[in-house]
Amino acid sequence: MEVWGDLVALLVFKTSVGLNKVPGGFDSHPPPPFFKAMKRVPQPPVNPAARALERHDFWPGFVVVLAGVIVAFYGARHLTNVDTTDGNTAWETQLIKAFSSGGVQYASEQAPPPPPNLEGVANPDEALARWAKEQADRQPPAWKIRVDLGAQAACPT
Amino acid sequence: MLGRKLSRLRPWVQTGFLAVWLAPLGRWLHGIPGCVFHCYSCPLSSFACPIGVMANYAALLPVVGEIPYLLIGLLLLVGATTGSLICGWACPFGFLQNLLGKISPRKITLPSWIGYFRYVVLVGLVLLLPAILGYKGIPFDEQAVSICRLCPAGALEAGLPYSVQALMAGNGWMMSGLKTGILVAFIAGAIFIHRPWCRIFCPLGGLLALFNRFSLFHLRFNPKECIECNLCRSRCSMGVKVDQAVNVTGCIRCLECTTCGAIEPAFALPTRNAGPPKPAA
After folding, report:
1. What residue spans define the domains of chain B?
2. Cβ A74–B81 below 8 Å, yes or no?
3. What backbone phi and psi angles, to 5 degrees, belong to A131?
4. Is-contact A105 B141, C-beta < 8 A?
């Protein structure tokens, strides 16, 4: 067969996908020894009569799909009972995003304010006692968990 | 010959899905859980890891009582539509294991019952342990034992890039010895065992496989086409006894078994009988 010009590319393509069989070409070569060495794994005999009848009805799957759509839609519009650091309530998507960016803050993790700097203070004992009293009177935060929307930890764990 | 075509097509579909999971869209979709096993701490992740989200919610449950509606809805939707087809055709971590498996043709065979260990991981490590430690007031990020700290996908997709980055910046290897060991063991395992993570540990695969029995997409056995060649079972690398049942929890729906012609992919429709054809009398 004689081929000219742009037809060469087409012929190469057709040969490569098996549309054009070339006698004496690549297809006519025997398989490589690697393929000859591959043997099928021996298996026990098949008994189609003993096979389980796997009925697949439409409705169970459809009902679960429908339930999934409704629950997912509800979740996408769901306001959690977790606050954000700017005082709003977090959407579920914001809470999920906080998991990946280390944005979930626990009240128990909040560090107390540092002790006052006593250098140059006229009465350091009094200042320290006042700070200790403030710490003793300090109310725990009203929130247990809140979401920092600006957190950007690359790998929280 | 549909099975052979599907077999050739599958790596390309898996590659195409990488453009979804590793898309350079930034991190703006991290508020939505994905449906494949892919660490959300990976610098190239588009969606949140569903298992990471589940474990985080489990840790928060005793404190604020939140339920992950979005995650549950998406898993129901994907599971009931496709079952574990996602595992065989879309999961990037499964694809990586497929590629690693190409290195050695010799494979260690595993018993099929080992797949039930996935549910131990799901219930124990993803749901119960974070909830118990969360009840004790330990935040998920600080829990010494958690799925994220033991996950090879996290080690490979997040730990490795950040450790290499830290190493190049002169800050030393940042990944813990345990996680590095898990990563090395996983890579070695994936070379000699076909998809070891999927078969033994993957809690997401186990969860999606529960839908296989009634998902709209399913596999159907046609006894008229069966010539008892056992090719279906020989082609299955997941150790499923395909000659007995196909829509089982051990199946990842790679569709390799459809090569024989007697097992065919099908989609349940309301207008036709989706049950298996009756054998000829």
Report:
1. 2-210, 213-265
2. no
3. -65, -40
4. no
Q: Which two tokens stand for residue A111?
A: 């560090």
Q: Which residues pair with B219 in a beta bridge?
A: B265
For residue B229, the model assigns a pLDDT of 81
Q: Is B219 helix (H, G, I), strand (E, B) or coil?
A: strand
> How far apart, in whole angstroms, are the C-alpha atoms of residue A139 and residue B162?
40
Q: What is the mean pLDDT, run by run of 10 residues, along chain B of 281 residues?
A: 84 91 72 89 87 93 91 96 94 92 86 91 95 90 87 89 86 83 92 92 95 92 82 85 87 90 87 55 48
| Sheet containing strand A104-106, strands side by side | A89-91, A79-84, A145-147, A104-106
A72 contacts: CB under 8 Å, gap ≥ 6: B69, B70, B72, B73, B74, B76, B77
Flag if A51 and B65 touch (Cβ within 8 Å). no
The total of other beta-carbon atoms located within 10 Å of residue B141's CB is: 19
* pLDDT tier at A76, thresholds 50, 70, 90: very high
Query: What is residue B114's DSSP assignment?
Result: G
Tell whether the model's pLDDT for residue A38 goes beyond 60.
no
Which residue intervals of A26-83 are DSSP H helices?
Answer: 33-37, 58-76
Mean pLDDT in residue range A23-49 = 60
Query: Cα(B149)–Cα(B32) distance, rounded to whole angstroms?
Result: 22
- pLDDT tens digits, residue range A138-148? 777 777 888 88
B71/A62 CB distance under 8 A: no
Q: What is the pLDDT of residue A106?
A: 83
Whether B234 and B98 have beta carbons less than 8 Å apart is answered as no
C-alpha–C-alpha distance, residues B150 and B124, integer Å: 13
Instruction: Please report which confidence band the pLDDT of residue A4 belongs to, taking 50, 70 and 90 as the band edges.
Output: low
Tell me what pLDDT residue A142 has. 76
Mutate to test the interface with A, among B25, B38, B64, B224 (most CBs of A within 10 A): B64
Q: What is the spatial distance between Cα B155 and Cα A39, in angstroms, rounded to a whole number?
A: 36
Smallest Cβ distance to A58: which of B49, B68, B269?
Answer: B269
Are B279 and A157 an interchain contact pair (Cβ–Cβ within 8 Å)? no
Return d(Cα B195, Cα A68) in angstroms, integer. 29
Which residue among A64, A91, A100 sits closest to B80, beta carbon to beta carbon? A64
